[in-house]
Amino acid sequence: MVTSLNKTIKGFVIALVISFSLSPLLILQVKATEGFWTIKALMPTARNAPGVAVVNGKIYAIGGYNGSYLSTNEEYDPATDTWTTKASMPTPRSSFAIAVVQNKIYVIGGTTGDSNSSSSGFTGAVEVYDPATDTWETKNRAPFTYRSGFSANVVSGKIYVIGGCTSPWRPWPNTDANDVYDPETDSWTSGTPIPTPVFDYASAVLDNKIYVVGGRSIPENKTYDLTQIYDPATDTWSYGAPVPTALSGGVAGATTGVMAPKSIYFFNGYTCEGGGGIYYSETVYLTQVYDPEKDMWSSNAQKLTRRGFGLAVVNDLFYAIGGYDGENYLQINEEYTPIGYGKESETQPEPLPLTWIITAVVSGSVAGAGFLVYFKKIKKKQRVKTN
Predict the structure, then answer these.
(1) Which of 19, 239, 327, 331 could be stapled to 42 by a disulfide with Cβ–Cβ 3.0 to 4.6 Å?
(2) Which residues contact 6 (CB under 8 A, 6 or more apart)?
């Protein structure tokens, strides 16, 4: 009976020692997660600079360039990892602004490549795609013909088209314009201009505010590290913490706090200082992450080594679609699982400090050793009694 009890105690002690020893390692494993990319089904048409938009959980890759300006419209369903070809856009183009209002996709501006036109191949056309009927409709043109390096964002049912470059000719001036489109009335108005005019920036919406990140000024050949924040409710601008690495030409998207912590992800970009104006840049592959609650940037997320891809967010997962690798136009489609994904909490626990982890390891080892010593003493006493 005593022998059986001793075996039970010994087994418990060994299990306890192992648990203490491994628990810090398990903590390290969980806390070290930094997100990861997964290859998904290839997009049927290889292309650079497609516009991507999400309606009812499905991603639409529209237009782009692969040696020709495209009107291609392909739908991707993340649930089934499959692609379907849809009705083509009326005006073939790339590098346009794209936005979704009431489950309809608005394509605004962009380049058509017609260098013989008065606008040097750019257009102010606004075309709307309805996925429910697989049809396109033409709307009132934008209040500009030439506009490059801009994007569109939606807040409270209105589309905000901010900044960009307004001329194909030197000195390639940036604009501080904040053009507001109301789909209900098919009309354009103006919001408060952006404080620092930027071209080729990245942008995203979080908590009904528009974040304009990075960008550049062609005349000064300057890359900005700015985080400019627009609140449509008050029609006012403010600044967030500067981006650690100043870049232009990147893309951005936001996680909502439902399946991953609220953050702005800023992927890749270019540097421009010291070069020859509009055509000079060095590609930088870098993922920078902004925490709006702490007003803080970090850059520890996994990198993506290509450029010119479209970015979509579905259920707090990112999808990087198409692009260019310097030699080839790409069909690639990758899904990014962001930091902290699946915790379903807006406020995630902070990573444990290294001193805590070391303390846990030492404490576990000491506790385990103590139990073993205690067990040996009991066993020795039992031997003395037996003798």
Answers:
(1) 331
(2) 378, 379, 382
CB 327 within 8 A of CB 308: no
- Dihedral sign, CA of 91, 205, 311, 131? negative
Q: What is the DSSP string of 122-184?
A: B---EEEEETTTTEEEEEPPPS-S--BS-EEEEETTEEEEE--B--SSTT--B---EEEEETT
Per-residue pLDDT reduced to its tens digit, 72-101: 999 999 999 999 999 999 999 999 999 999
Domain ranges of the chain: 2-31+351-386, 38-337
| CA–CA gap between residue 52 and residue 365 (Å, rounded) | 53
pTM, two decimal places? 0.80
Class of the CATH domain delimited by 38-337: mainly beta
The tokens for 176 are: 């501080």
